Automatic annotation (TrEMBL):
PROSITE patterns: ENOYL_COA_HYDRATASE. Pfam families: ECH_1. It comes from the Bacteria. Belongs to the enoyl-CoA hydratase/isomerase family. GO terms for molecular function: catalytic activity. This is Enoyl-CoA hydratase/carnithine racemase. It comes from Sphaerotilus natans subsp. natans DSM 6575. Coiled coil: none annotated.
Length: 256
């Protein structure tokens, strides 16, 4: 259910159940977790791209899967499949791009939004579909949405469950970019190659510091920045970055 392709230092993971809009079964969730985990361990991977096969990105949980039949404990599924996958994604040691090629609904929408950079095709859309079947946003949606777009927009999106077109998602700051459909693959490929050539550790510490800063005051954030800067200041990539700048040459980063 999951396709993996390598191009240089970029690993592309494609959710591949197009007949049911790449919706999640426990098999797909497990495969995604394992692929992310293997990429995290593989020092030759410097950027991960997540996308969907066919016309959709991901329609969230496969509602036909017996594992989520009404009157069964769906909390169990969250605890054992969604939670580890989402935490694995969010703690990747490399930047992760979501290439949202089509509709992203429910857990599929919040999976995309949990990535570091979200690039969506103009025909794509985001749907907080949960309320329409009597559930609340999961995959970190309750944490991320109000922080990303503010409480008013977040509640409107989550309560109404309307389709949010990619262009509007870009306008309200929910995603990085909306691009023409024909340009999605090219734009994401270029972006991934660019990120893969950058100082990986600095990029990942930036994500972690942003997340950590949600729970601290300014003084706490300054302390954290100081500790990180101190650590990175001793690392190879800083030395290389400064040397390359001084010599007016292209840097060659390698820390991960
Ligand atoms: C699907 C699905 C799908 C199965 C399309 N399942 N077949 C976590 C843990 C535990 C429990 C529950 O939830 C969660 C988190 C969640 O993700 S909850 C939210 C679950 N997702 C949804 O409610 C979205 C359901 N899908 C839709 O609303 C529509 O399919 C969207 C708006 C995504 C796309 O609409 P269309 O472009 O009109 O496509 P379609 O509806 O015709 O779908 C195409 C096929 O895919 C169709 O099958 P068919 O045999 O008729 O061709 C759908 O049944 C199937 N499909 N989503 N989630």
């Amino acid at each position: 259910p999951l396709r993996q392709e390598r191009a240089g230092a970029v690993l592309t993971l494609t959710l591949d159940r197009p007949a049911v809009l790449n919706s999640f079964t426990t098999d797909l969730l497990r495969a995604l977790f394992l692929a992310l985990d293997a990429a995290a361990e593989d020092a030759s991977v410097r950027c991960v791209v997540l996308t969907g096969a066919g016309r959709a990105f991901c329609a969230g949980q496969d509602l036909a899967d017996p594992a989520v039949a009404p009157q069964s404990d769906i909390g169990h599924l969250l605890a054992h499949f969604y939670r580890p996958m989402l935490l694995r994604l969010r703690s990747m040691p490399v930047p992760v791009i979501a290439a949202v090629n089509g509709v992203a609904a429910g857990a599929g929408a919040n999976l995309a939004l949990a990535c570091d950079l979200v690039v969506a095709a103009r025909s794509a859309s985001f749907i907080q579909a949960f309320s329409k079947i009597g559930l609340v946003p999961d995959c970190g949606g309750t944490w991320l949405l109000p922080r990303a777009v503010g409480r008013a927009k977040a509640l409107g999106l989550a309560m109404l469950g309307d389709r949010l077109p990619a262009q509007e998602a870009e306008r309200i700051g929910l995603i990085w970019r909306c691009v023409d459909d024909a340009e999605l693959a090219g734009e994401v490929g270029a972006l991934a190659a660019r990120l893969a050539a950058m100082p990986t550790r600095a990029l990942v510490e930036t994500r972690r510091a942003f997340d950590a800063a949600q729970q601290t005051d300014l003084a706490g954030a300054l302390d954290h920045e100081q500790a990180l800067q101190r650590e990175l200041g001793f690392a190879h990539d800083y030395q290389e970055g400064v040397a390359a700048f001084m010599a007016r040459r292209a840097p060659s980063f390698s820390d991960r």
